[in-house]
Specification:
It is a single chain. This protein is of the alpha/beta class. It has one domain: Rossmann fold (3-Layer(aba) Sandwich). It contains six helices and six strands; from the N terminus they run βαβαβαβααββα. The chain has a six-stranded parallel sheet, with helices on both faces. The protein starts with 15 loop residues before the first strand and ends in a 9-residue tail after the last helix.
Length: 210
Amino acid sequence: MAPIPTSALSPSKNPVLLVHGIGDTHRVFEPMTAYLSDRGWSVHTLDLVPNRGEVGLDQLALQVRDYVTAYLAEQPFDLLGFSMGGIVSRYYLQRLGGLQPVQRFITLSSPHNGTLTAYARNRPGVKQMRPGSDLLQDLNRTLTDLEQVQFTSLWTPYDLMILPAHSSRLPVGQMGTIPALAHPLMLRDRRSLEAVATTLSTPLSTKVEA
């Protein structure tokens, strides 16, 4: 979809692209979009289709690349992925050239090391989120790629979608724990929204303290 209109945009802030999770659409980001837009960010979203695991996450990452080409070409931007969207975004970064334009990268409750809930379905994209899947092993073999961007992983220990919850942690970049009481609340809990805004505001020359 086209960029969401915003008001009072700040030229000092990068545009930010939000990538949703499984079974979601761009509408899941409405609270975050409003929060960031009110604070001067130009917010972009897209709908990944199909979005219930029918195709591999590597194929969905092509849609992220195509969106960037159409709407964010030739400018630096920041990237945020929620849940499955964090893995899709990592594939874009680590395998499709996204490390060059992206400056800040945030994941919210993403199964970087897999989730046991992915055993509930046998669809290709879901199977790629199982612990030890070929796709996750491939991405995790080159974790140091993420050191080329300012990477932050935000997660909640109360997550019942990402099992175990600490699967959202990676040994690179920065980490922040948000005590949101459920997986979807990471998108609208005030503490999570504040952490995202703080991370997006952090100068690139300094470490993120999420």
